[in-house]
Fold:
Amino acid sequence: MKEIEQIYFNDFGVSFYWRKNDVVLKERVQIIFKETGFYFTHDEVKQFAGIVSDMFANAGCNGCSFRNKCHRVLLKTPVKEIDLAVSSQELTDIKDLLEGTLFTISLNEYINNVCRN
Structure:
């Protein structure tokens, strides 16, 4: 049976590494939100965070009568065959999940590698 090592979570989703035979498999990050799971490399997580940040910055909801409540935003993913329909709030939550994941990974790498005596 596989266990996990949690990286980051919010009310919308979670990210973690899989653990197998007491070894943490850090080559890929499992990210789960909105009943969807992605198993990305660190570079793919960075790429996805960039896509979300770009989309977040360019969201044209200001003049829309739905006021951020629709599911009409089509979010690209690093998997070119998969796009997700998300609301503005879900986009915000995904942005937080990805940024929190990347921050925690970077912080852990800094503490465990750079600060090691």
Q: What stands out?
A: DSSP finds two helices and six strands in the chain. The helical segments are 42-57, 88-114.
